[in-house]
Design goal:
It is a single chain. With 351 residues, the chain is an alpha/beta fold. The protein has two domains: 167 residues, FAD/NAD(P)-binding domain; 118 residues, Polyamine Oxidase, Chain A, domain 2 (Alpha-Beta Complex). It is built from eight helices and 19 strands. The strands form four sheets. Strands 1, 2, 9, 10, 11, 12, 13 and 19 form an eight-stranded mixed sheet that branches. It has a seven-stranded mixed sheet with strand order 7-6-15-16-17-14-18. Strand 3 and strand 4 form a beta hairpin. Helix 1 crosses helix 3, helix 1 packs across helix 8 and helix 2 crosses helix 8. 44% of the residues are buried. The mean pLDDT is 94. The structure holds flavin-adenine dinucleotide.
Length: 351
């Protein structure tokens, strides 16, 4: 049986938690464990059948993520954008077309899918991850933090909580967290916690063959943003996009039919000759979202300085992309928060 008492415990095996673990190991700190509620690692990173249902892109100025990818030997490639892109302004009028300037740097994608980052990071810490362990209570008892989960009770000298802050308000804390912190946590929206993504794979990239980039942008359609999502080695051809949230509560069949009809309208009848069709609604995932989720893309509360402090007498730290002082919400923010948390544990920066 696994021991339950550690120097450090990280709650959550998303990018932030795994990055902290990676840096702890780089600094020869091995007395820690990662407790993960889901039956998989990665958190909001989810790649299935080469489709990124979570994050898909990063930007040239995401330096910490770029450095981490380099360290792990992971390559990047540019988002495909050649040919005609489509802008839909209203439901009845004709679509407008535009072409992306191919001389400008585009967003990057991670070779092997975003999950490649998770796979490579977890290679170092596989034996330290405990899945299916949902934390419900964080208590300070004497000189330890006690974590109550659905499976076991764990204790540590210090704990890093990487849950999105809004979701972290659903845990019980003893003693209670300060009111001011609680208020900020409630107001910190979970980045993309409301998004619905769709991924459709095809035998051939038929849109490329008809000089379409695969990009369709427009708030009125069944899909508000659609992109070419062919993999780096060009062996799997797919389109991936964000579903209009008005379709959240219709039946799965109706939603799928509306999405395929929209693609057919703009890309032609070949859009219906797909190999596979999948969706992911993050608002319905209890390990990312929680009730009272508001539909916003950006929150002024990301990186609130209140997350710099440690709580429960210096034993509880908050991490995760929404707490990052820069690029909060993005993968870059998750990596930054992961590095900062490791530094705080290793006492290389002041709390
Ligand atoms: C649809 C979508 C599209 C996105 N697109 C992009 C993009 O293109 N580019 C970009 O840079 N970023 C994008 N993001 C954001 C990116 O995914 C996040 O910044 C990043 O993955 C956050 O990592 P994290 O570790 O901070 O949080 P999370 O990944 O949320 O990790 C938290 C972990 O805690 C676990 N957990 C939750 N509750 C409990 C509990 N009670 N007990 C134990 N464990 C628990 C979760 O399962 C999870 O593994 C997107 C996100 C989504 C959802």
């Amino acid at each position: 049986m696994r021991k339950t008492d550690y120097k450090y415990i990280i709650i959550g095996a998303g990018v932030s938690g795994l990055t902290t673990a990676y840096y702890l190991l780089q600094n020869r700190e091995t007395n820690f464990i990662i407790l993960e509620g889901r039956d998989r690692i990665g958190g909001r990173v989810l790649t299935k059948n080469t489709i990124d249902f979570g994050p898909a892109w990063f930007q040239p100025n995401h330096k910490n993520l770029s450095q981490l990818l380099n360290n792990l030997g992971i390559e990047k490639f540019s988002q495909y954008s050649k040919g005609k892109s489509i802008m839909v302004y209203n439901t009845n009028g004709p679509a407008h077309y535009f072409e992306s300037d191919q001389t400008q740097p585009s967003a990057y994608r991670i070779s092997g899918g975003s999950n490649n980052l998770i796979k490579k990071l977890s290679n170092f810490v596989e034996d330290k991850i405990v899945l299916n362990t949902q934390i419900s209570r964080i208590s300070e008892i004497e000189n330890k933090i006690i974590l109550t989960s659905n499976t076991n009770t764990f204790s540590a000298e210090r704990v890093i909580n990487t849950l999105p802050p809004k979701l972290a308000t659903t845990l019980n804390y003893s003693p209670k967290l300060p009111n001011e912190l609680n208020k900020v946590m409630h107001k910190t929206q979970t980045w993309m916690g409301h998004a619905i993504k769709v991924g459709i794979t095809y035998k051939t990239p038929f849109w490329r063959e008809q000089n379409n980039s695969g990009t369709i942008i427009g708030q009125f359609g069944a899909v508000t943003e659609l992109y070419d999502h062919t993999n780096a080695s060009k062996t799997n051809f797919s389109l991936m996009g964000f579903v209009n949230q008005e379709l959240r509560e219709v039946s799965a069949e109706t939603r799928k039919e509306q999405i395929l009809a929209y693609l057919e309208k703009h890309l032609g009848s070949k859009a219906r000759n797909y190999l596979s069709y999948s969706e992911k609604d993050w608002a319905k995932d209890k390990f990312t979202s929680c009730p009272n989720l508001e539909d916003v893309y950006m929150s002024a509360h990301y990186g609130n300085p209140i997350f710099n402090s440690a709580y429960l007498n210096g034993k509880l730290l908050f991490s995760g992309t929404e707490t990052a002082p820069y690029f909060g919400g993005y993968l870059e923010g998750a990596v930054i928060s992961g590095i900062l948390s490791a530094q705080k544990l290793l006492n290389t920066t002041k709390n």
